[in-house]
Amino acid sequence: MKVGILGYGNLGRGVEKAVCAAEDMELVGVFSRRDPSTVKTVTGAPVFHVDDLASKKGDIDVLVICGGSATDLPEMTPKYAADFNVIDSFDTHARIPEHFANVDAAAKKGGKIGIISCGWDPGMFSLNRVYAHSVLPGGKDYTFWGKGVSQGHSDAIRRIEGVVDARQYTVPVPAALEAVRAGKNPELTTREKHTRECYVVVEEGADKARIEQEIKTMPNYFADYDTTVHFISQEELDCDHKGLPHGGSVIYTGTTGENTHVIEYSLKLDSNPDFTGSVLVAYARAAYRLNQEGVSGAKTVLDIAPSYISPISGDELRAHYL
Amino acid sequence: MKVGILGYGNLGRGVEKAVCAAEDMELVGVFSRRDPSTVKTVTGAPVFHVDDLASKKGDIDVLVICGGSATDLPEMTPKYAADFNVIDSFDTHARIPEHFANVDAAAKKGGKIGIISCGWDPGMFSLNRVYAHSVLPGGKDYTFWGKGVSQGHSDAIRRIEGVVDARQYTVPVPAALEAVRAGKNPELTTREKHTRECYVVVEEGADKARIEQEIKTMPNYFADYDTTVHFISQEELDCDHKGLPHGGSVIYTGTTGENTHVIEYSLKLDSNPDFTGSVLVAYARAAYRLNQEGVSGAKTVLDIAPSYISPISGDELRAHYL
Question: pTM surpassing 0.95?
Answer without folding.
Answer: yes
